[in-house]
Design a protein that fits this description.
By secondary structure, the chain is α+β, with helices and mostly antiparallel strands. It has helices spanning 10-29, 149-156, 168-181, 193-202, 235-243, 249-268, 271-283, 294-306, 344-355; strands at 90-98, 108-117, 122-127, 133-135, 146-148, 187-192, 206-210, 214-218, 221-226, 229-233, 288-290, 313-317, 323-330, 335-342. The relative contact order is 0.20.
């Protein structure tokens, strides 16, 4: 068990718990309906993932790079350290940033999987490329068998009407990760564009540093948006930055999204950020979807008070070496499209390690 010695007295510990608790509460609740929810009932429809990985009706889109496995390893170490905060040994949450003002439709422009470890008291946030080419399970009757990872969310949204499982877009995205890579998430959290801008604008903007120039597409051509350097961004500019991949590609976009996430976290820990939280909670009502219960939220709040967001939270990405940029044929849309074709076995192994609390 990791020894914690950051707090000099009980008052300091309680102060930090209260600050980080409010921060996490704001992100996870997204409104005041906690007061109306049953303590152990998920706030939105719960995930009910397949017990067995679905068999594909056609060859894997990445079969040339390895066969897809069908189960988690049987020798996963059992917990030996008592989890803190009354939580489970770990909790894995699928987080999607949706390119839409509502949840009837929309692509998942940002995809993260966060693993909260209640034993080591650490958090690992893993970014998954939205353009990763995958099998999409359960939609064969609609003629959909493969697509990009962010399309799995889109095809599962309520407005499309294709997916009959749980959790709509987040549910199909979770099933896709399970089917392709054996990653079984416990819960989901999705935020739309309105949430993104509301958070940043209510905080009074965020301060970031870009290591390289960022371009956006204007009339089909790259146009400089932000030069490398320090910036104070409002919600709209941060949203534009988070969505750009001109020149830098999807991996550069992921890096910029991480810079924005760190900027939000840093601003929320300032006096002005803490002061803005009540207004933020009210404005976020209805713009966040998640299947986490109030009881589980209190566990996460408690964990947040025990960790150092600089030392105990790590941001990771899949190695570029495991993916190839190429054009593939999308049979449902009948077009050739750019995608990242990954080493299925290599990614599966990394995600198994991630789920077990190990990262290279």
């Amino acid at each position: 068990m990791k020894i914690k010695d950051r707090f000099k007295n009980i008052d300091a510990r309680m102060f930090k718990i209260s600050i980080f608790g409010i921060v996490l509460f704001t992100f996870l609740i997204g409104g005041t309906y906690l007061l109306y929810a049953v303590w152990n009932k998920p706030l939105d429809p719960a995930l009910d993932l397949s017990e067995d990985l679905p068999e594909s009706s056609l060859e894997s889109p990445t079969s040339q790079l390895g066969e897809i496995g069908t189960s988690m390893p049987e020798d996963t170490p059992q917990p030996t350290v008592k989890p803190v905060c009354g939580g489970p040994p770990s909790m894995t949450v699928l987080i999607s940033g949706v390119a839409s003002e509502n949840y009837l439709y929309g692509l998942a422009d940002a995809i993260r999987v966060a693993r909260f470890d209640f034993q080591t008291q650490e958090v690992t946030v893993l970014a998954l490329p939205r353009d990763l080419w995958v099998e999409i399970p359960g939609l064969e009757s609609w003629g959909i068998t493969v697509g990009k990872l962010n399309q799995a969310y889109f095809y599962g949204t309520e407005g499309m009407g294709y997916f009959s499982g749980s959790g709509y877009g987040s549910g199909l995205l979770a099933e896709t990760l399970l089917s392709n890579y054996g990653l079984r998430v416990d819960h989901y959290l999705s935020v739309n564009l309105s949430s993104f801008q509301i958070i940043i604008d209510t905080l009074g903007g965020i301060d970031i540093y870009l290591t390289e120039d960022v371009y956006k597409r204007v009339k089909g051509e790259p146009e400089l948006f932000l030069k490398a350097g320090s910036y104070h961004l409002d919600g709209k500019k941060a949203e534009i930055l988070a969505r750009q991949r001109i020149v830098i590609g999807d991996f550069g976009r992921i890096n910029n999204q991480t810079v924005i996430l760190k900027g939000i976290a840093a601003k929320m820990l300032t006096p002005s950020g803490i002061k803005a939280i009540p207004d933020l909670v009210t404005q976020l009502r209805g713009n966040v979807m998640m299947d986490i219960s109030p009881d589980q939220i209190t566990q996460l709040v408690c964990l947040a008070g025990r960790i150092d967001f600089q030392e105990d939270v790590s941001y990771e990405t899949l190695p570029v070496s495991l993916m190839n940029e190429t054009m593939v044929f999308d049979p449902f849309r009948n077009i050739n499209t750019f995608a990242l074709v990954g080493d299925t076995d290599g990614i599966r192994t990394l995600l198994e390690d991630f789920q077990a609390g190990i990262w290279p």
